[in-house]
Each structure stands twice: as structure tokens, then as C-alpha cells.
Amino acid sequence: MNVPEHLRYTKEHEWVDLVRENTIRVGITDYAQDALGDVVFVQAPKLDQALDTHALLAEVESTKSVAEVYAPVAGKVVAVNERLATQPELLNQDPYGDGWFCELEIDDENLISNLLDAAAYRQLTE
């Protein structure tokens, strides 16, 4: 299982990357995409949507089930990965790269330090 060291993680299997000051990129982990199986549809968040921590961010439909993705921290959606609408399989093929969901503008980037680091996430999934 791939768990990049520079990312932060949630117990619900989302990853977070600080892409610029007060802006994070959010996706699901390799562990989550593997558990889902082949992804066939993604309901992405809306641009400019304000989200509270743990609010519904996206829904992912796979050949096995439907899963909900939650906001790891509160923020406003400032970018959406439009490619997922026509290429949902990117979640399986490249969960830490082209398979990201959205970018959130957050009030305090220190909030992500409360999330799991790579070692803690590995321990959670073992």
C-alpha cells in the first residue's frame, strides 16, 4: 500500500496536501480506492461550496459499493477536479496524483497538523 510521507491523512481514508498557503488538495488514499474496487462514478463538490469539518465532500460509486468522502477540515471549495466526471477511474489509477477531488481554502493551515501523519495512517490500516 502506498502512503506518501508528505501527506496528512484522516481515519476515514482521505489524504490532504498543502498546495499553497491556506489551500489544501483532498483525495482518497490508495487503501480506500483498493477497498472500493473499480470506481465508475464520482459526485464531486460544487465550486465555492463552504464545508464544515466532516461534512460530505463527495460520493464515489464503484462496482462494489457507494462511499462518502468527508471534508478533513472546514473550508471553501476553490477548485474541483473536473476530469473525474468523465474519468472516474483516475481514483484507482492515480489516487495521489490525477485522482484528487478538490482544493479547499482553509482559514488556518495549522489545522492539518491535527491529522494523521504517514506512520500513524499506516498503523491504522495494518
User: Class in CATH?
Assistant: Mainly Beta
- Distance from first to last alpha carbon: 10 Å
Q: Report mean pLDDT, rounded to a whole number.
A: 95
The string of secondary-structure elements, in order, is EEEHEEEEEHHEH
Level of helix content?
Answer: 10-25%
| Unreliably modeled segments | none
By CATH, the topology is OB fold (Dihydrolipoamide Acetyltransferase, E2P)
Helix count?
4
CATH architecture: Beta Barrel
Based on the model shown, name its key terms.
126 residues; alpha+beta; OB fold (Dihydrolipoamide Acetyltransferase, E2P); 6-stranded antiparallel beta sheet; 3-stranded antiparallel beta sheet; 4 helices; 9 strands; 18% helix; globular
Description:
This protein has 126 residues and is α+β, with helices and mostly antiparallel strands. It has a single domain (8-108), classed as OB fold (Dihydrolipoamide Acetyltransferase, E2P) (Beta Barrel), CATH 2.40.50.100. The chain is 18% helix and 35% strand. The protein is built from four helices and nine strands; from the N terminus they run βββαβββββααβα. The strands form two sheets. A six-stranded antiparallel sheet has the order 1-2-3-9-8-5. It has a three-stranded antiparallel sheet with strand order 4-6-7. The termini are close together.
